[in-house]
Amino acid sequence: MAGKPLLWTLVSVPQACGKIEEKKNIQERHISGILLLRKKKTDKMGRPPCCDKTGVKKGPWTPEEDIILVSYIQEHGPGNWRAIPTNTGLRRCSKSCRLRWTNYLRPGIKRGNFTDQEEKLIVHLQALLGNRWAAIATYLPERTDNDIKNYWNTHLKKKLNKVQNDIDKGQWERRLQTDIKMAKQALADALSLDKPNCESEVKPEINSVSYSSSAYAANAENISRLLEGWMKEKSSSTQCSTSNTMAVDSPSSGATVSFAKPVSRSGASTPEPSETSLNPLPFSMLETWLLDENSEQEQDGFLDLSLVDNAGFF
DNA sequence: AATCTCTGCAACCGCGGGTCA
DNA sequence: ATGACCCGCGGTTGCAGAGAT
């Protein structure tokens, strides 16, 4: 281990090293506390955690441990994490080793502030993919999924919530009027015609980042296409869309229900203040919306990007 | 200056899917 | 077909530092 100090120049972790050096003394003090305080959660059913062994160290990694891990991976390559604690003598569980490598020690990891471009990409990918951070991270190879996830949770979510609130305040009423009008029209169509043909009006537009269902976005090919479309669109105008809202194509009624979902991840979807005080939406419209969306869960966390764009988020 | 609260982020936990005997 | 094992993922925790009171 000590025989390979040069390894620190081979991996791009100078910041990691410095930061750890700064905290080293504090760490030593805290690790025992962490070990004592951490709740044991193994009384639940299922496979016991891999780290539920006596003598396994937890908490922040020391530079020495990093060197040992990097040395081993330099020699044997990543993978076979199970063997690492045994072969290196590290008192860490395999999972901890893998996490340390993939999130911190792995070469090519970019640290520091996210650029505007990265931020935009994350926002759009999150809208497309939801909280599938690993998938999002494949589009930002220099960032780890953990980094992206943290950045989303600490910066972007708040930022988007604020923008969303502003949008809701200013546009909710106008949109509600439009929605009611459209729902009425749809109802009238449904009552007067057996087969309303409104496709030409309500067809979702891929290039304007309008999504009819999360199932579509879940397809990797489609995601790439949407993303490419977005990249191109960003340079030109975003005005190609006829609507500023997410379009939910409703085959049953022929109506397009426009809405902006809250970004909240809790699932509680706390009602907006304006939402609760306004007249209720027509039942048929709500029904359509509810029935057409496979589940609330699927939509949760997705937001209306065109609105965000127009509100000047970027 | 002391204390409290908030924020950022590294690390941990448990679950689910894939593999293999 | 089944169970054990391993790995990857997303959610969550908890510490350190910054800012507010």
Features of the shown structure:
314 residues; mainly alpha; two-stranded antiparallel ribbon; elongated; disordered N terminus; DNA-binding
Mean pLDDT: 57
Distance linking N and C termini? 47 Å
The helix/strand class is mainly alpha
State which percent range the strand residues make up. Answer: under 5%
Strand ordering within the main sheet? 1-2
Portion in helices? 55-70%
**Topology as a string of helices (H) and strands (E):** HHHHHHHHHHHEEHHHH
Q: What general outline do the C-alpha atoms trace?
A: elongated
Which regions have little confidence, pLDDT < 50, spanning 5+ residues? Answer: 1-49, 195-223, 235-301
Number of discrete helical segments: 15
Tell me the Rg in angstroms. 25 Å
Main location: nucleus
InterPro entries: Homeodomain-like_sf (IPR009057), Myb_dom (IPR017930), Myb_TF_plants (IPR015495), SANT/Myb (IPR001005)
Pfam family, one: Myb_DNA-binding
GO molecular function, one term: DNA binding
In short:
The chain is mostly helical and 314 residues long. 56% of the residues lie in helices and 3% in strands.
Write up what this structure looks like:
There is one protein chain. The relative contact order is 0.10. The protein is elongated. It has 15 helices and two strands. It is mainly alpha-helical and 314 residues long. It has a two-stranded antiparallel ribbon. 56% of the residues lie in helices and 3% in strands. The longest helix is centred in the middle third of the chain and has 48 residues, at 145-192. The chain starts with 6 loop residues before the first helix and ends with a helix. It binds a DNA duplex (21 and 21 nucleotides) through helix 2, helix 5 and helix 8.
